[in-house]
Design brief:
439 residues, Aspartate Aminotransferase, domain 2, Aspartate Aminotransferase, domain 1, Ornithine Decarboxylase, Chain A, domain 4, four-stranded antiparallel sheet, 14 helices, 15 strands, 36% helix
Length: 439
């Protein structure tokens, strides 16, 4: 597969042209990557009006991922989430309210996007919660939530995989959405590799209309590299509107280093990646079995994640003492993320560092579900005067900025909701000292 962006920046770096244009380093190395760091010079194309090398590279990505169209982001999936919400609201079926039905475990970018787009959000809540990182949604729960609404929403929005690696039944959720004639949007930031499993398992493969993937989370791309995928289940006109939705939230100075990494990733994916992915997934499954034998509670998760339930701070301490840095830990969980770029020794080191589980039994918490009363829309709350107050003074106040333990996660309280006693208890549990509230 060709790499038009990589080829262009290489040629330019080797050309010896006098750089009387941005950026200010003029290609002279400070970090070493500067010769490749360019701006929209002649021949380099422009991300938000792509018709040359960037467009060709995005078309390569679309062919690889099986999408109707794929658009690059150099500002992570956060930018793609904003674009998905904007598309759902501005391009909704005529006569429908700008309402999105969303599983509660959202990235905070979703809340801000809803505010900016003027969307109203109805939440699908978890039936019970042992972690704010998860909000499982069954097809029956989605059907029930849709039936309670006064009308069909502009879209349904879910996060899968979630931060602990749990995956929703996207095919079944998409079937429900088809019956209700509403598009399914999926935050697939942690599952960019899923299309390359056997059989393919990405949200688009399973019937979603839109999906955002963070390439940098599970593929060998630079931080900030991500995709917005338009699926074949999306309304036809969304393909031509998608780049404009991305541009509404994107920088006019996109990083060509990040674009080049997405371009190079296309060739990487086209040249034996499914087999490397299969080998890594098999290695991780073996590691899971060994950790279970050593007494650790290993949760079910997606193929490239290793999630343990237990004393997170102590597990993190052991790993760091053994020269291993984890993705995430909290009071009750530890998350490790691996890719084919990890050497087998990386996983072996983690197993050695954890050793045998000699910790006291760890009971999963029964966290209260803070169903805050919606007093204002997210837009009204986020644009109102706000202040920060100690948690003890937050009870009964209206939330300004959303309170999230880690993205994506169930917000303890969302902008515009009144803070109740359950929310205060959760914030104390999470160690949050202050809350953002309306004046």
């Amino acid at each position: 597969m060709d790499t038009p962006i990589v080829d262009f920046v290489r040629r330019y770096a080797a050309s010896g042209v006098a750089r009387l244009h941005m950026p200010g380093h003029k290609g002279r190395p400070l970090l070493g990557c500067e010769p490749w760091d360019i701006t929209e010079i002649a021949g380099a194309d422009a991300l938000w009006e792509a018709e040359g090398i960037i467009r060709r590279s995005e078309e390569n990505a679309a062919a690889l991922f099986g999408s109707r169209a794929t658009f690059y982001s150099i500002e992570g999936s956060s930018q793609c989430i904003r674009a998905m919400v904007l598309l759902a609201v501005t391009e909704r079926t005529p006569g429908r309210e700008p309402l999105i039905l969303a599983a509660r475990n959202v990235h905070k970018a979703f809340v801000y996007a809803a505010a900016l787009a003027g969307a109203r959000v109805e939440w699908i809540w978890p039936e019970k919660s042992a972690s704010l990182c998860s909000c499982p949604v069954s097809p029956a729960a989605l059907e029930e939530a849709l039936s309670r609404l006064p009308g069909t929403p502009a879209a349904v929005y879910v996060t899968s995989p979630d931060y602990l690696g749990a995956r929703a039944d996207i095919a079944a959720l998409a079937a429900v959405c088809r019956r209700w004639e509403t598009p399914l949007l999926v935050d697939n930031a942690h599952g960019a590799y899923l299309h390359f499993c056997q059989p393919p398992q990405s949200p688009l493969d399973l019937g979603a209309a839109l999906s955002c993937d963070s390439a940098h989370k599970t593929l060998p791309a630079l931080t900030g590299a991500a995709y917005l995928h338009v699926g074949k289940a999306a309304p036809v006109h969304w393909e031509e509107r998608a780049r404009g939705a991305m541009a509404a939230f994107g920088s006019t100075s996109p990083s060509y280093l990040t674009l080049a990494s997405l371009d190079a990733c296309n060739r990487y994916l086209a040249e034996g990646y499914p087999e490397r992915l299969r080998e890594t997934a098999a290695r991780l499954e073996e590691i899971r079995a060994r950790l279970r034998d050593a007494g650790w509670e290993v949760l079910e998760s997606d193929a490239l994640r290793l999630t343990l339930r237990g004393d997170g701070p102590e597990m993190a301490r052991r790993l760091r003492a053994g020269g291993v840095e984890m993705e995430y830990s909290d009071r009750d969980h530890l998350v490790l993320m691996a890719t084919p770029e990890n050497a087998p020794e990386d996983l072996e080191r983690a197993v050695r560092a954890l050793g045998r589980n000699d910790l006291p039994p760890h009971a999963p918490p029964d966290l209260p579900i803070a169903r805050g009363e919606a007093v204002l829309t997210p837009r009204e709350a986020l644009f109102a005067p706000r202040e920060r107050v100690p948690i003890e003074q937050a009870l009964g106040r209206i939330c300004g900025a959303p309170t999230v333990s880690c993205p994506p996660a169930v917000p303890v309280v969302v902008s515009g909701e009144r803070i109740g006693p359950e929310a205060v208890a959760l914030m104390r549990y999470l160690g949050l000292g202050e809350a953002d509230v309306l004046r």
